[in-house]
Amino acid sequence: MTEERPAYPSLENRTARHRTLQAIGRDGTTTKPASGDCSDRKWPTYWITAASLLEWSDPYERIVDKENEPFYRWFVGGSLNAAENCIDRHLEERKNQVALRWEGKRGERRTYTYYDLYREVSAVAAALRELGVEEDDVVTIYLPKLPELPITMLACARIGALHNVVFAGFSPNALAERMQRLDSHTLVTCDGSSREETVINQKRKADTALASIEESLPTIVVDRLGSSHDMHLGGNQYDYDNLVEAFVGANVPPVPRKATDPLFHIHTSGTTGDPQRMTHATGGYLTGVAWTAQTVFDLMPGTTIWCTAGAGWITGHSYVVYGPLLLGATVVLAEGSLRYPDRYRPWEVIERNGVEVFYTTPGVIRTFMKWGESFPSSHDLSSLRLLGTVGEPISPDTWEWYYTHVGDERCPIVDTWWQTETGRVLISDRPGIDELKPGLVGRPLPGIEIQIVDEDGHELPPGESGYLTIDRPWPSMLAPLEGDRYWVLAEYWQAFSDPRADTWQYFTGDRAVIDDDGYVTILGRDDDVITIGNHRLGTAQLEAAITTVDSVTEAAAVAERTAGETALCVFATLEQGQQDRTAIRNAVADAVAEHVGEFARPTSVVFTPELPETYSGKTMYRLLECIVNDRPPTDSDTLRNPEIVGELTTIWNQE
Ligand code: WT7
To answer: Which residues, including other chains, have CB under 8 Å from residue 573's CB and lie 6 or more apart?
Structure first.
């Protein structure tokens, strides 16, 4: 496809950027020595250029320290503050430039300049202190896409507290679990939010979670719904606006944090079942995020970026909050659904705000495709100059649609591969520099070394698919707390490692293939994780919820993809003699909603006498996925019970 059409466009005026990239990039100095060999002296020095995008309170003494292998520590000896880097240092030059444009679901609009952010972040920081939050304490944030979400994150960062953002759609149980696991000191939430015509009582969900923790944690409540919703504050609960009013004008000097100190926690599904906490360290994370915000998203001071991810996900942390603000850009935050009040909303948001960089997921683009090109074509999208996608593989036809109907065949598309654990984009084309190939995520960014390996960890040649590994540490890599190191090691480093070998090989859990030009195609996850609405959920976590229903003995959760949307489909086996299938079906759906969240409620629950299993007793998810997605089942040779495949296909088709 690429050979037949003229080259995809480049960005112009990139000379300065080219120079930075060359300092870091594929200029010969970074050629990889032996696989995973981190002893190459030149190897870490190019990260100096990236770190110089930040303002350091104390300069670092060493770029990297490998004492705790494989957990490299970055910019040792240096200190800095994230909020100071995102806000204070811009004040001299762009105090009155817009930092954040928010659009509410009910058509409201709010704009914050960098100076506005400075004042409100300082007030919230002072309020958190007043509530007893100290450096290194954890503050859980359970808010939908409101300006108060990034503001509270930055307020935590200002005083050296660690934020733990929990997706607002999660259930009280899921919230309580995520608070307890981190011994959260304080909670920040809101009264509620409207979803299309109904109201979701967010505070009631928060109160339920708080009650189950049995401690009266200080709680700050944002009044989102105003007089349309009665907000009752209990003991130790405070109204956000009152606090801001009480503390506005407070001078809260940013607390310098060691580069190796944690900046925040965030939960990932992991593959072992329960969601796992992941931690990022201040200096490395901010360096990686600032550098990719510049290199991949081409952000400059004043660039307007709209990333549709919620701040509860790493994408929101890195490219809604930290990356853009570190570079002095303007962030657009749109509350609510992209289809409400109607399907014109995404294009209105772009037109109204003059969005230049738009970043979303293939799932969202598929939905746009389904709605049709008349929606984007009815708006002036000429402000756009760069498009991005993340979260799952994008098919070439979806890519072409995005390129043609949103990007008007002028805007490069960056297909960015990364993970919660990597903190920032690791594999992507660089706009204006690399040739774009639809459906391929491109080559690893400068300084990143990857390999595709087989079951034994041996490198595979181009064209052969295998496991994607990262073969060198990078700033912004996961920085687990000491207590998490064992499981993190087991999950990411020991897939094939010989502990005696001097190799460093991070296992991503993805399967991929590289072509002759070094471009990577991601084939999907190898582990038992499914993505719903771009939320990575462990099947084990979902199945644990499903099997809380008494009569269900075993369950498997898989993703069903219908035009543009992913739905959760459950296969379950029942105790003998269970007749009332409708009741069980409802109970299963309710259990998922209760333990995980409404957004994950399954659309179909199918009963089966057995689940397809390997000889080692592992459920064959890929086979179930074939069945629900009407693809011919593959992989059945390694099954213990191959006869179940035909039976399941029949059951599914009758549903
Ligand atoms: C997993 C990470 C980090 C952003 C959002 C998700 C998949 C991510 C791509 C892409 C194909 C992708 C991988 C990865 N993924 N980006 N461009 N093409 N697949 O974060 O929840 O940590 O999920 O998302 O499977 O391992 P996450």
So the answer is: 552, 553, 554, 555, 607, 608, 609, 610, 611
From the CA of 415, give the closest atom in ligand 1: 17
Quick check: CB of 510 below 6 Å from ligand 1? yes
* Alpha-carbon torsion, ordered 537, 541, 542, 546, to 10 deg: -170
Domains of the chain by start residue, with CATH: 450-471+491-522 (2.30.38.10), 528-654 (3.30.300.30)
Local confidence band at 498 (pLDDT 50, 70, 90 cut-offs): low
| Ligand 1 contact via 276 beta carbon (within 6 Å) | no
Query: Do residues 573 and 647 touch, judged by C-beta distance below 8 A?
Result: no
Report how far apart, in Å, the C-alpha atoms of 194 and of each of 104, 158, 223, 335, 379 are.
Answer: 10, 31, 12, 10, 26
What is the position in ligand 1's atom list of the atom closest to the CA of 522?
Answer: 11
Which has the closest alpha carbon to 40: 502, 603, 413? Answer: 502
* Cα-based distances in Å from 547 to 312, 456, 541, 552: 27, 34, 10, 5
Q: Residue 562 — pLDDT band, cuts 50, 70, 90?
A: confident
Task: Give the separation between CA 295 and CA 50, rounded to whole angstroms.
Answer: 10
Query: 384: which residues sit within 8 A by CB, 6+ positions away?
Result: 350, 355, 356, 357, 358, 406, 407, 408, 411
Q: Is 431 in the pocket of ligand 1 (CB under 6 A)?
A: no
Question: What is the 8-class DSSP label of residue 443?
Answer: P
Give CA–CA dist 104/226, Å, rounded: 13
User: Which of 314, 419, 428 for mutating ligand 1's site (highest number of atoms within 8 Å of CB)?
Assistant: 419
Nearest atom (ligand 1) to Cα of 315: 4
pTM of the model: 0.86
Ligand 1 centroid to Cα of residue 217, in Å, is 34
> How many whole angstroms from 425 Cα to the centroid of ligand 1?
10
Residue type, 34: A
Q: Work out which ligand 1 atom sits closest to the CA atom of 418.
A: 3
Least confident among 9-13, 249-253, 320-324, 443-447:
9-13
Q: How far, in Å, is the centroid of ligand 1 from the Cα of 497?
A: 23
Q: Are 133 and 140 in contact (CB under 8 A)?
A: no
Query: 326 CA distance to ligand 1 centroid (A)?
Result: 23
Closest C-alpha to ligand 1, atom 25: 525
Q: Could you tell me the distance, in angstroms and rounded to a whole number, from the CA of residue 417 to the centre of ligand 1?
A: 6
545 phi/psi in degrees, rounded to 5 = -65, -45
Q: Show the tokens assigned to 198.
A: 């109904």
399 phi/psi in degrees, rounded to 5: -55, -50
For the four alpha carbons of 242, 248, 253 and 254, in that order, the dihedral sign comes to positive
Question: Is 448:440 a contact under the CB 8 Å cutoff?
Answer: no
CA distance 65 to 63: 7
> Per DSSP, what are the bridge partners of residue 266?
278
- Locate tokens 């687990």: which residue? 480
Angstrom distance (rounded) from CA 525 to CA 166: 23
Nearest-angstrom CA–CA distance, 76 and 545: 42
Question: 148-163: per-residue pLDDT in tens?
Answer: 999 999 999 999 999 9
Atom of ligand 1 nearest to the CA of 394: 18
Per the prediction, the chain carries an average pLDDT of: 88
305/296 Cα distance (integer angstroms): 12
Q: How confident is the model at residue 33 (pLDDT cuts 50, 70, 90)?
A: very low
